Amino acid sequence: MPNTRLCMTVRYHTDHGHPIPDYVCQRRGIQTAEPLCQRLPGAQIDQAVTELVLKAVNPSSLDVALEVFEELRTRKAEIDRLRRTQVERAREEAELAQRQYLLARPENRLVVDHLERQWNEKLTSLTQAEEEYARMSKSQPSALTDADRNRIHALASDLPRVWNDLRTPARDRKRMLRLLIEDVTLVKKQNIQIHVRWKAGATTSMERPLPLSAPDLVRTPADIVELVRALATEQTDAQTARTLNARCLRTGRKHSFTRLIVRHIRNAYGIASCVQYLRSQAGSLHPKLLRKWKCTQAPPNASPPKVCCMLSAPMTEGSCYSSQS
């Protein structure tokens, strides 16, 4: 979640023998019995993060990263020099306060007490400066040698091969990601927003579309529905099915088209059949043109008509063909 930063957990389900992750925000559900905050299928999220990592860890990107690393190391070295100068200055001030205290006459108690208090303050400042310098020096990166650079380039070249190797277990892939990524924030809105925070502190954001629902996964594509709408003005359902199959088109379930499937598509999307279309257009045709069409029982050897004529009723689409009187 964007504001409360609740940690999401991972659930797995099996698809064709392969574990598929789902990311679930269920902390509030466990604590207060509230509904799940959000649930996101993890397959496309994992794929997006993987592509981002493999794109970031390549030889060309590493050259730039190494140059930036050297620049940052140079800047940190300059900051380290300034901190070391502050420590030396604090040490000199503490030594000066010590000499002033030792040179004071004991009978001047007010002066001695003031110089002693000043010396203690300088010693405290020196101790704090030394501790701060020691703490910051631990995070100072070391310089990279040529051998280190060659080793990094070799690892970058081998990473895609190792990652895509079927023998690489998922736990090793997770370990690789932990070396590069601090955390990943997921936000579900009109799409899935993915915010990847790298170990170095930078953040990369990207978006992915929401996964299709189960009905949408098997729904007939919209372009095929429009093609059925266009063909229905000239062809019967059986002829439309043959036309679609001839164009190597398939249903949402990857099946071949049949007369019943075409009829189901027409009924689902409110598409008029060839008969209904021609009946609706009959009033706009010229009477001389109407007399040219004759609907009778189609002979067995009749070829498929270009236009299905069904101006007289009742007959079925399969028995309708055009001829001139």
What does it look like?
The protein is 53% helix and 13% strand. The chain is α+β, with helices and mostly antiparallel strands and 325 residues long. It folds into three domains: 1-41, no CATH class; 59-147; 217-319, no CATH class. A three-stranded antiparallel β-sheet has the order 1-2-3. It is elongated, with a radius of gyration of 39 Å.
Secondary structure tally: strands: 6
Q: Order of strands side by side in the largest beta sheet?
A: 1-2-3
Mean pLDDT across the residues is: 77
List the secondary-structure elements in sequence, H or E: EEHEHHHHHEEEHHHHHH
Q: What is the CA-CA span between the terminal residues? A: 74 Å
Structural class: alpha+beta
Approximately what portion of the residues adopt beta-strand conformation?
A: 5-15%
**How helical, in percent, are the residues?**
40-55%
Number of helical stretches of at least 4 residues? 12
Overall 3D form: elongated
Tell me the domain tally.
3
Low-confidence stretches: 292-325
